């Protein structure tokens, strides 16, 4: 019987109808994120998004912010190190829409710093088994860096790069003179270099304004400079927190964003291995298989 995987975040809804073999039969992407859904409307929203897939007793796995305090069912966080079987063992089940709903837990870290994730862990677990320790990076609004070894997430860190970029570019004096958001590659690469090497990032952000006023940066280059600087500084921090990889870093995410991160890693002389963007499908499949084995 087919099953369904739903990656339901704050601003986006992604769902996959998956065959028993793990192949995607159909998919749905929309902007119907958790932030647009009131507490008693989740079942109605799910029906509206994927009602055509629902059939009696179909198993629906739900991951992401839909399992948070602001979501449908608040699941616990599992502490690292965490494997796919650990997640499968702590699923909360519910019966709605004549379907078997399975809400997946998030992952937390207590030390050496506090951190949490919901949804990204499924993409990380979707990566094919790696015996060696590998650095995994999911760039985005809140980038996730992690060490993955033998199917377990051992340690991770969140860096708010995408959110900072949006705030600085659109809501600060530093980004006020910017024209457009398409990154100028030369300005981006210059920003990466400065982000990798500076120990004063808060001061450096104002360069996006002062250099325009001093005719050292064109307004059309501001977005690229800011993006490069913040990504470069993220990589500097991420390597300090998670460690410099001995093997190529595994990048997962939006192809355009992953391309920018690849350029930034080149400046660090760190090779990258770009993974498929839909690794959540593989993660859902592994959860499903683990659940079947536990029933056997």
- Average pLDDT score: 94
Unreliable residue runs: none
Query: Terminal Cα separation, in Å?
Result: 16 Å
Number of helices: 10
Query: Structural class of the secondary structure composition?
Result: alpha/beta
Any guess at the CATH architecture of the largest domain? 2-Layer Sandwich
Spell the H/E element sequence.
EEEHEEEHEEEEHEEEHHHHHEHEH
Task: Could you tell me the CATH topology label of the largest domain.
Answer: Nucleotidyltransferase, domain 5
CATH class of the largest domain: Alpha Beta
As for the number of domains, it is 2
Strand order of the largest sheet: 3-2-1-4-8-7
Instruction: State the share of residues found in helices, binned by percent.
Output: 25-40%
Largest sheet, in brief, is: 6 strands, mixed
Shape: globular
- Please provide the count of β strands: 15
| Strand content bin | 15-25%
What's the SSE blueprint?
Elements: E1 3-8, E2 13-18, E3 24-30, H1 42-50, E4 59-63, E5 77-79, E6 82-83, H2 84-89, E7 92-96, E8 99-103, E9 106-109, E10 115-117, H3 120-125, E11 134-138, E12 143-149, E13 152-159, H4 161-171, H5 185-197, H6 201-204, H7 207-213, H8 222-242, E14 249-251, H9 255-267, E15 272-274, H10 279-295
Parallel strand pairs: 1-4, 4-8, 5-9, 11-14, 14-15
Antiparallel strand pairs: 1-2, 2-3, 6-13, 7-8, 9-10, 11-12, 12-13
